[in-house]
Amino acid sequence: MTKQVEFYYDFGSPTAYLAWTQLPALCARHGTELVSRPVLLGGIFKTTGNDTPVRIAEKKAWMFDDMARYAARYGVPFNPNPLFIFNTLGLMRGAIWAAAAGCLETYNQAMFEACWVDGRNVEDATEIGAILGDAGLDAVALGDATQRPEIKTALIEATAAAVDRGVFGVPTMFVGDEMHFGQDRLDWVERALEAEAA
């Protein structure tokens, strides 16, 4: 069986963005398939009783400084979105649609960069339409899909399955049954892949 890294994410997480910038190259180094698993972080928080650490002002300031240091280390752009914390329900339903439509990686790039590079207003339908258009994606099809019951149900089920697996936040990566939480744990993801190959 092909080795896999499963990546649970929500576009509203800046640390998920940082993990996303690194995981494709990490997986390529090990001949490993990257499996993207979009979930709704708000749903995970509600189910598990967890909450975002950025509600504590001092921790928020430290975290964004730390994320800037990691972005510099990775050599990737990172600009805190002035509208953070924002609602990602529509975006994550869109990811479910994009996965079914075979364009998830293009969609992921468009949305992660809109949120954490370009500082776009991803709660505004017109803005989302422009983001999708720039990425060559069908904004009308996505808008329609996010209101379909089967898309709504699929996101609910994906989020519940993540919680059942032990996920309490994002980014969370699995190598087999071994769970790694946080973009600052990518070295452990790599070690797990090395151990599998040994």
How would you explain this protein's 3D organization?
Helix content is 57%, strand content 10%. With 198 residues, it is of the alpha+beta class. The chain has a four-stranded mixed sheet, with helices on both faces. Strand 3 (172-175) and strand 4 (178-181) form a beta hairpin. Helix 4 (89-101) packs antiparallel against helix 5 (104-116). The protein is globular and about 50 Å long. The two termini are 15 Å apart. The relative contact order is 0.20.
Helix content: 55-70%
Give the overall silhouette.
globular
Strand order of the largest sheet: 2-1-3-4
* Total beta-strand segments: 4
Largest sheet: 4 strands, mixed
Low-confidence stretches: none
The proportion of strand residues reads 5-15%
Number of helices: 9
Mean pLDDT across residues: 96
Distance between the termini: 15 Å
Please write the string of helix (H) and strand (E) elements. Answer: EHEHHHHHHHEEH
Structural class: alpha+beta
User: What is the alpha-carbon Rg in Å?
Assistant: 16 Å
Layout of SSEs?
Layout: E1 4-9, H1 14-29, E2 33-38, H2 41-48, H3 57-74, H4 89-101, H5 104-116, H6 125-134, H7 139-145, H8 149-164, E3 172-175, E4 178-181, H9 186-197
Parallel strand pairs: 1-2
Antiparallel strand pairs: 1-3, 3-4
How would you sum up this structure in a few lines?
Helices cover 57% and strands 10% of the residues. The chain is an alpha+beta fold.
Task: Sum up the structure in keywords.
57% helix, globular, 4-stranded mixed beta sheet, 4 strands, alpha+beta, 198 residues
